[in-house]
């Protein structure tokens, strides 16, 4: 039996015989597309080589079992001899190709470049190969790459077995291109199926595929061929084959900033791409090269990372209307899983719609589209619908201005008086509705034990999930009404304060005092408990040293031998029992404190570096200051107008005192509900793993709720679908996604050398200190004492850091965001909504935060020395370069 298959002798062989890449190239050749000539070394050659060498077979088995490294497999391949018959076949096949040109030797695994899996970049490619011996060495290298270290987890994620570890190899004449690249017949950035994207660079395309260079990028309308967007990269070098070697040679100065593709090239590529996609019947990822004016297709594979038609991770291909992340990115800054999207987002939309309904704004979603759509695994808000709903409503100097832009001619909405009445009615009733919901639906909620869940069948778990999801849906309605009530209260209060203060700055400072000091806040109960545990540990210096070392194992050992260890452990266990449901993200897949107690110990270690002041005592002081500010403000309402406005101020102030702590407290109860749902769903995943439908129990979060089987009897194998969803999720997670979609204007939120970056000033004061970037609460131990925390957004899981930071900067949020509330409680300046802050501001750089003006700017290299207020730490800091251990934070009250 022959082990060599030239492209021109292809007779419907399958991927099991010539691998995915070889199959695609043979089919392209047979259907008339220009493919570099070559042949396939079939899977049977691989099988025969492995079967004839037991030591090699054992090495591959050991690698798959996780007992052997890639180097051992490679060594085993290099040690075996070539069968005489296969060696002669190979020599004849190589001789049939152009002897003047080098060869490219590429892997073609049976699972590679298939409709289900891509495995792009996982296996070896060898270029510039000359001579029979070099081809044989390249073949062995490709076969050995089937067992590389990065692939083992990939195989597990896709549910592949040992018998799937087989590979053919493609040998082709190598093209020496003037320009090469890749083409996606569906633009992977927007997922718009009416557009294709071309990426190109001078020379060989391998530099682009490997990510070593930034290519030119062109987006083309697939039907008309019109260029929609063209970005020209600065191209310094190109990879070429010269003198029997691959070399990086410099691009001439005149070509570095010129387009690598001509208009004729783009037209030819577009025409070829349309033909290949029509032939394949599916969107294609195409590798191409121009040798002179001749266009060669080096590879074409199905795109496996596009959202399925019924996937929740991305909205339908045709995108209409304007969409924004504003008002969404604070709580949903990370990619959500399909299960979360299919359960949380519909509930979120109902909650937002309920707030419109409560204040008398009609539901016009039928004509203007849905309120929320999913792009890149995250929610986007319908700007057109919001603009219509808020017709005639002035939004200047608010976060909603970022959604709608400045509106000079807002017109008149005859429904405004009714809307105003609806707002006041909602403010009056909203908090009471929340109290009833908490008392009747959340407080009775019991966390089931693992033993109880373990004995339930899939149908039983599904039945117990249904009422939980109904409660979850009602939560979002009550919660969103609560959020809007709090927002309306702060807006009305600030408007009233503006009436009795001479300047906007004075009114803002008064608001900061009136919106802090709320002792009835579970977040402060949690912080106070952490503070007490930290004090207990500090009484034993070696326990404090062990915890501060960062080694959880060392701390646990120290705790086990200390006489106070049982008391510390008991307090910690009580803490987890009460506060362990804190959410880090709005995501069912993510673990909570109860799941990862080590994270809480990190927070305790951080608390030891913070202020030596009990959070409860601090908030009680703030409460006293708030009531004094309230009395002083009330006295400012004088005269006939004051007589009218004083009752309004009193009413709104008292309601705001209900709503602000309620915003924090409802997150605590929400975390408990999420935990119960999450544990129930995980056990559903366990049942599906037991019958082979899923590979891992948490795969279930990559299924939409509607796709989870009702029973194991009706369950089909979902591993392939989950693999595609995971691939799409990972891709979106790594993307720098757009803040707005189909937006004509750019946001005016860039950097100005004089004024810095702008955002929303939410807590007064000015601080200059060192910036520390943290993306997750688990990274808070890297934030130095007295530094300025810069992050995406915060929630209650971040609160332990507020006692030791000098200021806060976030990429999203508004006046009543968690970060704003906590900053006012801790008396630190805060600027929220600085778009791109975590990438624009570098850790270790000195910056100035002006919480009154909403500005963040670069500071001089040497920090100012004047001090208004100092913070003393509980425990010496070990990682605060640039600041003394006894932190002196500059807090200038403007």
Please explain how this structure is put together.
- 43% of the residues lie in helices and 14% in strands.
- The model is unreliable at 113-118, 395-412, 744-751 and 861-894 (pLDDT under 50).
- The strands form five sheets. Strands 18-25-24-20-21-22-23-19 form an eight-stranded mixed beta sheet, with helices on one face. The chain has a six-stranded antiparallel beta sheet with strand order 9-8-7-6-12-13. It has a five-stranded antiparallel beta sheet with strand order 1-2-5-3-4.
- Strand 12 and strand 13 (294-302) form a beta hairpin.
- With 894 residues, the chain is of the alpha+beta class.
- The chain is built from 27 helices and 25 strands.
- It is globular.
Topology diagram in text:
Elements lengths: L3 E3 L8 H16 L7 E4 L1 H9 L2 H11 L5 H10 L4 H12 L7 E7 L15 E5 L2 H13 L6 H7 L9 E7 L5 E6 L10 E8 L3 H4 L6 E6 L5 E5 L5 E6 L2 E6 L12 H18 L3 E8 L2 E9 L20 E2 L13 H21 L6 H4 L3 E4 L2 E5 H7 L9 H6 L11 H27 L7 H5 L3 H43 L3 H11 L7 H17 L2 H8 L3 H10 L3 H15 L17 H11 L7 H20 L4 H52 L28 H16 L5 E2 L15 E2 L1 E4 L2 E8 L14 E4 L15 E4 L7 H9 L3 E3 L4 H4 L5 E5 L4 E4 L36
Parallel strand pairs: 20-21, 21-22, 22-23
Antiparallel strand pairs: 1-2, 2-5, 3-4, 3-5, 6-7, 6-12, 7-8, 8-9, 10-11, 12-13, 14-16, 14-17, 15-16, 18-25, 19-23, 20-24, 24-25
Helix pairs in contact: 3-4, 4-6, 10-16, 14-16, 14-24, 16-17, 16-24, 18-21, 18-22, 19-20, 20-21
């Amino acid at each position: 039996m022959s082990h060599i298959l030239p492209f021109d002798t292809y007779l419907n062989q399958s991927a099991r015989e010539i691998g995915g890449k070889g199959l695609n190239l043979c089919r392209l050749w047979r259907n008339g597309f220009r493919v570099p000539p070559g042949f396939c070394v079939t899977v049977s050659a691989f099988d025969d080589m492995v079967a004839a060498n037991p030591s090699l077979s054992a090495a591959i088995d050991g690698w798959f079992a996780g007992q052997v490294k890639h180097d051992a497999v490679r060594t085993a391949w290099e040690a075996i001899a070539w069968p005489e018959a296969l060696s002669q076949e190979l020599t004849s096949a190589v001789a049939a190709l152009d002897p003047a040109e080098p060869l490219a030797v590429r892997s073609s695994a049976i699972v590679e470049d298939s409709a289900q899996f891509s495995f792009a970049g996982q296996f070896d490619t060898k270029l510039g190969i000359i001579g029979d011996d070099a081809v044989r060495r390249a073949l062995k290298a490709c076969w050995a790459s089937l067992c590389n270290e990065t692939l083992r987890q990939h195989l597990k994620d896709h549910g592949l077995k040992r018998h799937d570890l087989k590979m053919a190899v493609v040998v082709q004449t190598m093209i020496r291109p003037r320009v090469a690249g890749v083409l996606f017949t569906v633009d992977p950035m927007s997922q718009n199926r009416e557009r294709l994207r071309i990426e190109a660079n001078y020379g060989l395309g391998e530099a682009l595929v490997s990510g070593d260079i930034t290519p030119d990028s062109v987006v083309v309308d697939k039907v008309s061929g019109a260029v929609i967007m063209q970005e020209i990269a600065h191209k310094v070098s190109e990879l070429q084959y010269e003198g029997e070697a691959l070399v990086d040679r410099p691009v001439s100065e005149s070509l570095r900033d010129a387009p690598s593709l001509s208009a004729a090239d783009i037209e030819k590529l577009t025409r070829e791409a349309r033909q290949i996609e029509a032939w394949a019947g599916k969107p294609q990822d195409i590798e191409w090269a121009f040798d002179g004016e001749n266009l060669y297709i080096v590879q074409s594979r199905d795109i496996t990372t596009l959202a399925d038609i019924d996937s929740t991770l991305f909205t339908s291909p045709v995108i209409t209307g304007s969409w924004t992340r504003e008002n969404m990115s604070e709580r949903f800054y990370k990619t959500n899983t399909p299960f979360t999207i299919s359960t949380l987002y519909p509930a979120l939309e109902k909650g937002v719609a309920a707030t419109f309904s409560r204040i008398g704004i009609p539901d016009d979603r039928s004509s203007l589209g849905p309120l929320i759509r999913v792009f890149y695994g995250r929610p986007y808000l319908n700007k057109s619908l919001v603009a219509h709903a808020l017709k005639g409503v002035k939004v200047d100097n608010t976060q909603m201005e970022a959604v709608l832009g400045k509106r000079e001619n807002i017109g008149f909405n005859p429904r405004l008086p009714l809307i105003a009445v609806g707002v006041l009615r909602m403010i009056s009733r909203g908090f009471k509705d929340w109290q009833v919901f908490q008392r009747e639906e959340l407080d009775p909620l019991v966390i089931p034990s693992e033993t109880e869940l373990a004995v339930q069948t899939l149908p039983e778990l599904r039945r117990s999930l249904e009422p939980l999801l109904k409660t979850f849906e009602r939560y979002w309605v009550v919660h969103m009404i609560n959020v809007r009530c709090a927002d309306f209260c702060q807006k009305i209060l600030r408007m009233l304060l503006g009436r009795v203060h001479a300047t906007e700055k004075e009114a803002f400072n008064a608001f900061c005092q009136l919106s802090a000091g709320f002792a009835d806040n579970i977040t402060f109960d949690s912080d106070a408990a952490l503070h007490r545990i930290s004090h207990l540990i500090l009484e034993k210096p070696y326990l404090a040293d062990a915890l501060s070392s960062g080694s959880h194992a060392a701390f646990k050992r120290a705790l086990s031998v200390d006489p106070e260890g049982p008391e510390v452990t008991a307090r910690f266990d009580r803490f987890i029992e009460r506060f362990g449901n804190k959410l880090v993200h709005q995501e069912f897949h993510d673990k909570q404190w109860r799941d990862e107690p080590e994270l809480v110990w990190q927070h305790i270690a951080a608390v030891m570096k913070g202020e030596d002041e009990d959070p409860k005592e601090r908030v009680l002081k703030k409460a006293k200051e708030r009531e004094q500010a309230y009395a002083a403000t009330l006295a400012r309402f004088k005269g006939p107008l004051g007589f009218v406005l004083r009752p309004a101020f009193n009413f709104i102030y008292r309601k705001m005192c209900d709503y602000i702590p309620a915003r924090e407290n409802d997150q605590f109860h929400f975390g408990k509900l999420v935990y119960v749902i999450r544990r129930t769903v995980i056990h559903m995943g366990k049942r599906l793993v037991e019958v082979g439908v899923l590979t891992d129990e948490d795969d279930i979060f990559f299924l939409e709720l509607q796709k989870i089987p009702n029973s194991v009897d009706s369950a089909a194998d979902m591993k392939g679908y989950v693999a595609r969803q995971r691939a799409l999720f990972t891709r979106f997670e790594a993307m720098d996604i757009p803040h707005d979609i189909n937006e004509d204007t750019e946001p005016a939120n860039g950097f100005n050398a004089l004024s810095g970056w702008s955002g929303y000033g939410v807590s007064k004061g000015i601080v200059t200190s060192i910036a520390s970037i943290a993306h997750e609460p688990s990274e808070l131990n890297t934030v130095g004492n007295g530094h300025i925390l810069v992050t995406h957004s915060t929630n209650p899981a971040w609160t332990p850091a507020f006692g030791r930071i000098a200021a806060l900067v976030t990429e999203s949020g508004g006046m009543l965001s968690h970060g704003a509330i906590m900053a006012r409680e801790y008396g630190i300046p805060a600027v929220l909504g600085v778009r791109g802050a975590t990438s624009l501001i570098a850790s270790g750089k000195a910056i100035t935060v002006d919480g009154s003006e909403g500005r963040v700017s670069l500071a001089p290299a040497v920090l100012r020395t004047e001090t208004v207020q100092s913070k003393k730490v509980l425990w010496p800091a070990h990682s605060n370069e640039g600041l003394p251990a006894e932190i002196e934070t500059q807090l200038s009250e403007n």
